[in-house]
Design goal:
Elements lengths: L27 H52 L2 E7 L4 E7 L12 E6 L4 E8 L4 E2 L3 E7 L2 E2 L3 E7 L4 E6 L6 E5 L17
Antiparallel strand pairs: 1-2, 1-6, 2-3, 4-5, 4-8, 6-7, 8-9, 9-10
C-alpha cells in the first residue's frame, strides 16, 4: 500500500532568480511619473493663486476708490463741507480733498484726505460726465456739497484681462455702484422722445 504525504497547504516561495524578486522601492519610471504629476499639480495651484491675487488686487483698488467717493458724499451730507475727487487719467491717480478756500484750482497739502494710485491690474480707461463731457486724458473733477454731486457720471476701469468695469453715481441718489461692463449713462429725454400719455 502506498501512502501519499503531500502537504495540505503550501506557501508560495518565489523563484530565487532575478525575475522572481521584487524590489521594495519605486522604479525609475514610477518615480518620474509621480514627480511629473506633483509638478503639474503645483503649477496648476500657482496659476490659480496668481489669478486670484490679480483679481483681489483689482477689487481692492476699486473698493478703495469707491470708499473715498462714499466718504466724500457722506461727509458733505453730514457736515455741509465741500469735497472734490480728482481722477487723473493720464497719471492713473486719484485724490480726495476738502475744499477750504475759494481758489478751486489750487490743492493745498492740508486739504488732502486720500491719495491713491491705480496699478497694472486696474487701469482707468475714460471718464464720462452726466452732461455729456468725456475725457480719456488729463484730470476729471467731481465736486460734492451738502446738496449732492455737482456733476456725476461714470469712471470706466479695465482689469488685467482688459474687461471693463464701471463706477457710476448720480446727482439724484447717494448710491455709488460698481457695474461689470460699460453701460450707457441715463440722460434726460427731450419732449420728442417721451411718448404722450
Amino acid at each position: 500500500m502506498r501512502i501519499c504525504s503531500a502537504p495540505i497547504s503550501r506557501r508560495f516561495e518565489p523563484h530565487p532568480g532575478p525575475a522572481g524578486r521584487r524590489a521594495g522601492g519605486f522604479t525609475l519610471v514610477e518615480l518620474i511619473v509621480v514627480v511629473s504629476i506633483l509638478a503639474l499639480l503645483v503649477l496648476m495651484a500657482q496659476l490659480n493663486l496668481f489669478g486670484t491675487l490679480q483679481r483681489s488686487t483689482f477689487r481692492s483698488q476699486i473698493q478703495g476708490f469707491i470708499s473715498a467717493l462714499r466718504m466724500a458724499s457722506t461727509g458733505a451730507a453730514e457736515t455741509g463741507h465741500r469735497y472734490e475727487m480728482i481722477v487723473d487719467v493720464g497719471e492713473q491717480t486719484y485724490l480726495l480733498r476738502e475744499i477750504t478756500g475759494s481758489n478751486l484750482a489750487e490743492v493745498y497739502d492740508e486739504e488732502i484726505i486720500v491719495e491713491g494710485q491705480f496699478g497694472g491690474s486696474c487701469h482707468v480707461s475714460y471718464v464720462e460726465f452726466d452732461d455729456g463731457e468725456y475725457t480719456n486724458d488729463g484730470q476729471a473733477k467731481f465736486r460734492v456739497g451738502h446738496a449732492g454731486w455737482m456733476y456725476a457720471g461714470k469712471i470706466v476701469f479695465l482689469d488685467e484681462n482688459e474687461q471693463p468695469h464701471t463706477v457710476a453715481f448720480s446727482r439724484l441718489t447717494p448710491m455709488i455702484q460698481l457695474i461689470k461692463g460699460d453701460p450707457e449713462l441715463m440722460r434726460p429725454k427731450s419732449e420728442r422722445e417721451v411718448p404722450p400719455l
